[in-house]
User: What shape does this take?
Amino acid sequence: MKIAVVGMGYVGLVTGVCLSDIGHTVTCIDINLKKVKKMKQGISPIYEPGIAEMMVKNIENDRLIFTTNHKLGVLDADVIYIAVGTPENEDGSANLSCVEHVAKKIAQTIEKDTIVATKSTVPVGTNEKIKQIINDNLVDEFSVEVVSNPDFLREGSAIYDSFHGDRIVIGSESLRAAKVIEKINQPFGVPVFHTDIRSAEMIKYASNAFLATKISFINEISNLCEKVNANVEDVAKGMGLDRRIGSEFLNAGIGYGGSCFPKDLKALIQLASSCDYQFEVLQGVVNVNKKQQVLLVNKLVERLPTLKGKKITVLGLAFKPNTDDMREATSLVVIEKLLENGAEVVAYDPVAITNAKAILGNKVQYIEDIDQAVKNSDATLILTEWDEIKNIRLNSFKTMNYPLVIDGRNCFKLEKMKEHQIEYHSVGRPVVGEVKELIEK
Assistant: This one.
């Protein structure tokens, strides 16, 4: 089929590239001329394993086209996907201005009956509003059906998820439109779940909210484990063996970040409030996550009563591995706290340094070699579980002024750190290594 995708953010680009890879002719539309020029050359604006190679292949096969011309982009399209951003407003609600703008543009440019599928994460009732906007602004009497088709892609494994996802959710009041979207996605071989539009919108928010709840819950358990001398990894494993609970998202650490969970939880809390309902569980999830983000700094301050003039190495800047996304990254909170306490911060990340510089500027020293990053450091904090970090030679920590490692992602086995005589603090697990007096009190 001929497909148009409006908005080349994370979801839009992955959607367009993967749909072209299963045989559709896809035109990707974005207003950013510089970004579009690069994408035409097969250069991805985001770091996502496998996407650049897939872009080049489908551009060469004439199945993947990039343009800033909206009218040209939607010409002859059977389906138009809306994938623009919905950033949060000051009150936490979703900002729908871009979605509404695209809806008007669609109404003014389509030249035949069309199906519009919304990939953007939008509050319940938004797709009905999109349809109303389109109908109010149509320049010709075409029929437009609107379908909710939320994404469930994980940054860092979005290509894999597209082809091996758990489900594709299609919300529609039109059986014909729903069947068209199902047919488009059929080559992925992913199970399809049909429902009404409002339920599809809620499924996206509810799914992210539940995953974030599991993260905050296990982090609370990990904090308690430290107080009672239990090991949260064993606790999580024992919990996960119960099929009703499952082991996914039970990894204790320093909280969630990124472009989805923080924004979507705030939007769902705000939506509940607008319906005169207080979503107390989710407010607790948000509060726990804020507390967890400063856990490593608190551990460090307990260990080093003063950080003034201390060289502190931060390993990992992106909010999670296999992405360069710095949105709501825990590293930003940690680094600001370290700087407030007078520390000199050295940072390493295999791919996110450029994006980090755009936010942090020259307040931090960036080093692209992990061994050099930890050398002569007074303490090392691990914030992102990159393979490059998990596979560091443990002897590299011996080049520190004193091998003090505080790990927010539980990257290393306790036994290994003990063998290498590294003082190792992690999350929800016992401290290993000899704890020495480091400064004069």
About this structure: Residues 197-228 form the longest helix (32 residues).
